[in-house]
Amino acid sequence: MTFRQFAFNNVKRNTRAYVSYFLSCMFAVTVFFMYAVVIFHPAIRNYEFHDVVQSGIIASEVMIYIFSFLFVLYSTGTFIKSRKKEYGLLTTLGIKKSQLNRLLILENTIIGLTSILAGIAVGALLTKLFLMVFSAVLGIDDILPFHLSWRAIGLTVLLFFIMFELNTLAVVWTLRTKSVMEVFRGSLESRRTPKFSWILSTLALGAVVYAYYLAYTADLISIMWRMFPILALIIPGTYFLFTQLSIATTNLLKRNKSLLYRNLNLLTISDLSYKLKENARILFIVTILSAVAFTSSGVLFGLLRGVEAETLRFTPQAVSLLSNENAKLEEFESVVTDVETQFKEQFIPYESTLATAIRTETESTLSNWDKTPVLVYGYSDYQQMMDLKGVEAKAEPQYGKGILFVQDLIDSYTKSIPEVIGVKTGQTTTNLSLDWEVSPLNSSIGTNVQLIVSDEQYKQFKQEAETSSIRYNYVMDIPNSLNYATKTENVLNQVNPEIAFTDSQADFYLMMRQSMSYLFFFGIFISVLFFLAAGSILYFRMYQGIDKDLKHYYSLYRIGLTSKEMRKIASRQVALLFFLPFSVAAVHAGFAFKALQNILVSNVLIPSIFVYSLYFAVHFINFIIIRNIYTTKLNKVM
Amino acid sequence: MPILTAANLTKIYGSQRGVQHEALHQFHLAVGKGEFIGIMGPSGSGKTTLLNLLSTIDSPTSGTVTIDQTTVTNLSRNKLAAFRRKETGFIFQDYNLLETLTIGENIMLPLTLNKWKVNEMKERLQLVTEQLGIAELVDKRIFEVSGGQLQRAAIARAIIHEPTVIYADEPTGNLDSKASRQVMEALQFLHQEKKTTTIMVTHDPFAASFCGRVIFIKDGKLFNEIHKGDNRQRFFQDILNVQSILGGNTDDFQTVRF
C-alpha cells in the first residue's frame, strides 16, 4: 500500500459519509458549468439581450462561487475535524505532521477532482435541456444549439480546483491534532447540563417577533428601509432561539415530573436538550439556508406568476395613445386609423373611444404637489373611458371640486395628498377641493396624475386654456388583451413617437414577463443550491454523531428497551433535526411572503404553498432515506 | 427448584462457511433461588458468552435457557426486551449509565419504561438509594461522582424493579480495591437481606469470594465448581488454588499470592 493508495482507500471507504457532501459540490459545479456554457456560447452574442443576460449570469456565477466556497470550507472543516481520533492514531504510529497534511490534501484533492469531473459530466448531459429552458424563458425562437466550449470547462475546472485546494489548505493549517494521550484516554468532555439565559431567550423571541411584525406591516416604501433591520433582528434572533430558548423550553418540560417520568419521555426529553445544544449551530445554519431558499424561490415564483395581475394593476387600459404637444389632430387621427386598420388585419378584437384632456400644472402649498403636470378630463370623457372597460364610474364631482387620480403604489405611499389644489389654465388659477383614488387610467410620460372635473368646470377650463395644451387620448379595450400581447406590441411599435405616446398592457406585460423570467431563471438554481446544501449539512451531522448515538442505544438495549421503542426515539430525534429548522424557516419565509403580498396585488399564497410543498416533498424524502439509514444501523447493534 | 436453568447451551461464532469457533460447548447450569453465583475463567474461556446467553442479550446456537419457568430462548426479540426490562437487572463493568440523565433518573429508568406512577417511583428510589448509601447523590450528574458510586447507582438501577435475576459483568473491573469492596458488600447485602438471585462474571478472586458458589469455565466447558463454607478468607484461597490449576493465560491472574 503506497501513501497515495492509503489516501485513496480512505476516501473510498468513507463513501457513505462523503456522499452528500460530494453531491452538493457536484451540483454546485453543474450549475456553475451550465451558466458558464451560456456565457461562452457563440450564438448568444447575436442577441440584443446579450448584455443583460451576461451580467445576470455573471452575478449568479459569483454568488454560486462564493456560496460554494463557504460551504466547502465548512464541510471540509467539520469532516476533517470529525476524524481527529484517526489522526491521533496515525500520530502514535509515527506519522509526521507534514505527512498527515499531505494525506489530507491528497484526500480532499481526490474528492474535489471527482466532484468537478462528475459535475461537468452531469452538466454536459443537462446542457441541452438547460439551453432549451433558457431559450424558452428568454423567448428565443430557435433553440440555441448544443455547444460545449473549452473555455467553459476550463473556467469551471480551474475555479473549483483552486477553491478545493484553498479550502483544504485553510483547514489543514488550522487543524490541531490531539496529543497521543488524549486519543487513548478518549474524550473526557462530559456532557454538562446545557445552560441557558432567560434574558437572551426573551430577547431572541422578542427580536424574532418584532422582525415578524416589521415584515407583516411592511409596504413597498417601508420595506426598503426595513429590510436591513429585519435581517439584523431575525438572524441573531434565530441563533439564540436555538441556543437559548430551545434549552429553556426543554428545561421547562423537565420540571413537569409527571410528564417527564412517563414512559419514553424521560429518555426523549433529556436527550433532546443535549441534541438541541449540540446541534444549535447546525440547526441555525440550516434554518437560515432554508429560509433564504424558500423566500427567494417563493418571491421569484410569486413575481413570475403575478405578472398578469400586476400588468392589469399598473396599466388599467389595454391600449392608450396620447397625442404629443406638437401633434396636429389630423396627424393623430391618421395614426389612430393606421392602428385600427392593423388591428383588424391581425384579427385583434377591440372597442375604442376618444377623449380630450387639458395638460396643465398644479399649484399647491405642498412642495410635492406644486408644479406637478396633470391631465384634466371632463366627467363625460372619463365616464366613456370607464364604460369602455365595463367599470362603474365615480359620481360626477360638483363644480369647484375634483377627483385626483394618482399612481398606485408610488404616489399613494410617498406623497400625502392635499385637500385643495390649484389648477392653472392660461393665466388663471382655479382652486379645487379634492377627492382622490388610485388611477384607473394609464399613465403617460411626464403626467402621472389625472384630474377629473365636472363637465361645466371642464368647459370653463377649456376656454381659458391655450390650444397647445389640449391633448387627445385614444383608448382601446381588448378582451383578454394579454393573449394578443405580441401582436399588439408589434402594431404599437410602428406608431410615430413624435405624434403619439403609446402605453399598453401588452408592452408592460412583455417587459415584466421578460425581466421576471430572467430573475426567476437566475435565482431558482441558486435557491435550490442553498436548500441542497442545508440537507447535506444535516446528513453530515447525523453521520458524525452516529457512533456516539449507537453507543447510547446499545446501553439502552442492554437494560431492555425494545427495538421498536428505540426506533421510535431515534425517529423522533432525526425528525426533530430535520423538521425543526424546516418549520422555523417556513415561518420566517411566511412573513417574507406576507411582506411581498403587501406590495403585490396578485395572490402569493398559491405560489408560496407550491414552493413549500415542493421543498417539503424533497425534504421528506431526504428525511425518510436518512432515517432508514439510521435505524438500519441501529438494528445492527442489537 | 432452580430459578434459572441452562441446558445444552452451545454457542458457535463465525459464519457457516468461514472459520468457526465454539465458544460454549453443551453447557449445563442450574441456579437456585436466592443464590449468589460467580463465573470465572481465563480470557476466551466463554464466561462472558455464557453470561450474555443467560441474560438473553445473545441467543445460543443450540440449547435452552429457562428463567422462572419461561423458556427465554424461544421468545421473539421484542418479547425478550420486554422480559429483560421486567425480570432482569444488569450491572456492567462500564456502569452503562446514561450521561444525559441524573443519577436518580438513571435509577428510575426501568420504572418509567414499565410505566410506573411518579410517586411510587420516587418512594422506591428513596428506598433503594438509602439501602445502597447513595441517597444524597440522586440529583448529581454522572461525571460528578466516583466510580464506586456510579457502580452502586448501577446496582440500584438493576434492583429497583425487583427483578428475578441480577446479572453482573465484571462489576469491579474498573474500580480500585476500596470501591470494589463497597460494591461487593452492597451485592452481598442484597443477597443476604433481599435474597436476590445474582449471577456474576469476574476475573477478580476477591470479588468472587463474596459469592456462595463459583464455577470455573475453560474452553467453553465446565472445569470446576467450588462452594463457600463459612469463611470468606478460606474461600478466597480456594479460588486462587483452582485458578492456578486452571492455568490458561497467566496474565489474567493476579501475580500476588498469599
From TrEMBL, chain A:
Any one of the GO BP annotations: transmembrane transport
Record keywords, A-Z: Cell membrane, Membrane, Transmembrane, Transmembrane helix, Transport
InterPro entries registered for this protein in UniProt: ABC-4_Integral_Memb_Prot, ABC3_permease_C, ABC_permease_BceB-typ
Annotated TM spans: 21-44, 56-75, 110-140, 152-175, 196-215, 227-253, 282-304, 518-540, 574-593, 605-626
Keyword ATP-binding: no
Localization (cell): Cell membrane
A single Gene Ontology CC term: plasma membrane
Bilayer disposition of the protein: Multi-pass membrane protein
One Pfam family from the record: FtsX
Chief localization: membrane
Domain (ABC3 transporter permease C-terminal) ranges: 62-179
Entry similarity comment: Belongs to the ABC-4 integral membrane protein family.
Protein name: ABC transporter permease
TrEMBL record, chain B:
Annotated GO MF terms: ATP binding; ATP hydrolysis activity; transmembrane transporter activity
A Pfam family reported for this protein in Swiss-Prot or TrEMBL: ABC_tran
UniProt keyword list: ATP-binding, Nucleotide-binding, Transport
Residue span(s) of domain ABC transporter: 4-244
Record bears the keyword Nucleotide-binding: yes
CDD domains reported for this sequence: ABC_MJ0796_LolCDE_FtsE
A GO cellular-component term linked to this record: membrane protein complex
Superkingdom of source: Bacteria
SUPFAM superfamilies: P-loop containing nucleoside triphosphate hydrolases
Keyword Metal-binding: no
Annotated coiled-coil segments of the chain: none
Family the UniProt entry places it in: Belongs to the ABC transporter superfamily.
PANTHER family reported for this sequence: ALPHA-D-RIBOSE 1-METHYLPHOSPHONATE 5-TRIPHOSPHATE SYNTHASE SUBUNIT PHNL, LIPOPROTEIN-RELEASING SYSTEM ATP-BINDING PROTEIN LOLD
Protein's recorded name: ABC transporter ATP-binding protein
Organism, scientific name: Oceanobacillus jordanicus
